[in-house]
Write a structure and sequence with these properties.
five-stranded parallel sheet, about 65% helix, about 5% strand, alpha/beta, 17 helices
Length: about 450
């Protein structure tokens, strides 16, 4: 159903999301205040005392650690905010993280405490997928349990739509960067939606559901591993930016201590989830390896085609026409892959600086054509050795075509936009060195231009 909605172009709606949020917050507030009110009114703490005094098969530290790992699933959602960061106004993204943090900090501990006061441990274990509805029915009545169930359906529906929006954006970006097959960029003529991405995501989700035979606990465990893995990568990415791109201008800077503590906490939760049920990791590994294999094949497809061309010439050596026809098709495919030009926006003529950029492109991009562009405001400011150094490097790399283009203007997002149009090069194939504080623009202002080396 949700795949069909996305196929016809119905995706994320701010109004619908706001309605779901208001209903969800209202339902949780009713649940919290109604449960707390009934508990105080009856002044019955027998269930809490029974749960507190219940014998445990494990030590207190063991219970706290694995309880912490299980609770990590309750904070999922933080990773989805980054899906919309490019559509948000400056300063909005930190506010979304703050609001989510405040909401989780308020509701999660209170609801957990009220559940222990309202339901026995046996009831909590037996209703792990519907504990809030059971809590609502035990505290107030059937009507609140129905409301909580309806609210859960709304929230789950919104999260599924959000997941499609995030996956479509991610797969499109990776396809544009040639990390995934290019056919994923095809769109339906009428609705302009990426049908292959939508159908692929639907197939992956459906296959996982069938693989675990509809076990929602296993599905939650696999999702938890994926979610915590993404959060760990956020921390690692932040640390890499601090180490490799410390001069990059940005409004908010996290301290090393804060990042390390965050990574350690998330990683501890990830390990707890895996130790609690190693089977979750097996299911996750199946899809992770398959995805990694697809990306690897896409990244080295030019080399694989060259190998295929070599062996087809040997196999078809007695069939001249077939051999020439196959060679022509494979050679054209290789040429199409390598003909995409890469633009490097160079600011100086340092040969080591230029060589580092060329090496990055050679090792990480499937191309044999690099356009080195220098933007100048006055001809006297053009680096005197720029052309000579590029000619020298052009001789050093005979398999790579190096072009020098000088552009009169100011280095700004508007100039980069015009360059992308004139050179017919998407911005994700335009590279820049890491800017320093002297640049009045942030890297986000350039709309997709990628950093590959130091300034």
């Amino acid at each position: 159903f949700f795949a069909a909605l996305n196929m016809v172009g119905i995706g994320e709606s701010a109004i619908v999301a706001l309605i779901i949020f208001v209903v969800h917050m209202g339902t949780l507030l009713i649940l919290v205040f109604a449960s707390a009110g009934m508990l105080i009114y009856h002044n019955d703490w027998s269930i809490f005392m029974a749960n507190w005094n219940a014998p445990s098969a494990h030590s207190v530290p063991y219970a706290i650690y694995f309880g912490f790992g299980a609770a990590m699933l309750g904070i999922s959602g933080f990773e989805t905010s980054s899906n919309f960061i490019e559509q948000q106004q400056p300063g909005v993204f930190p506010k979304t993280l703050r609001n989510m943090w405040a909401t989780v900090t308020f509701f999660n501990p209170i609801i957990g405490a009220l559940a222990v006061c309202t339901l026995s441990l046996t009831d909590i274990v037996n209703n792990d997928s519907g504990v809030l509805a059971a809590m609502a029915e035990a505290a107030v009545g059937k009507w609140l349990a129905v409301l909580v169930g309806a609210d859960a359906f709304l929230v789950l529906s919104g999260s599924i739509i959000t997941s499609y929006v995030g996956v479509i954006g991610l797969a499109r970006r990776m396809s544009l960067d040639r990390c995934l097959p290019q056919f994923l960029l095809q769109v339906l003529p009428m609705r302009r939606t990426n049908h292959w991405i939508i159908l692929g995501f639907f197939a992956i989700c459906s296959s996982l559901y069938l693989l675990v035979r509809g076990n929602t606990e296993t599905l939650a465990g696999v999702y938890t591993i994926a979610f915590l893995g993404v959060m760990c990568l956020f921390s690692i990415g932040n640390m890499l930016l601090k180490y490799k791109r410390s001069s990059l201008p940005r409004e908010i800077r996290s301290s090393w201590l804060g990042v390390v503590i965050s990574f350690s906490a998330v990683f501890a939760g990830l390990i707890a989830t895996i130790i609690d049920n190693p089977q979750y990791l097996q299911y996750f590994a199946v899809y992770f390896v398959a995805t990694a294999f697809l990306i690897l094949i896409t990244l080295v497809r030019s080399r694989l085609l060259k190998i295929l061309l070599f062996f087809t010439q040997i196999i078809l050596r007695k069939f001249r026409r077939s051999r020439e026809r196959v060679a022509q098709h494979i050679s054209k495919a290789i040429q199409d892959i390598n003909s995409q030009a890469i633009v490097f926006l160079a600011s100086k003529d340092d040969p080591a600086y230029l060589n580092k950029a060329i090496l990055y492109v050679r090792d990480n991009e499937q191309t044999n054509w690099i356009k080195i562009v220098h933007i100048y405001e006055d001809e006297s400011l053009i680096p005197p050795n720029l052309q000579r150094n590029i000619e020298f490097l052009d001789h050093c790399y005979p398999k790579i075509r190096l072009d020098l283009i000088t552009v009169h203007g100011t280095f700004s997002p508007a100039t980069v936009d015009r360059l992308a149009t004139v050179l017919k090069t998407p911005k994700n194939f335009m590279f820049i060195a890491c800017p320093k504080d002297h640049l009045p623009h942030t890297i986000g202002d350039f709309g997709g231009v990628r950093m590959i080396t130091h300034y």
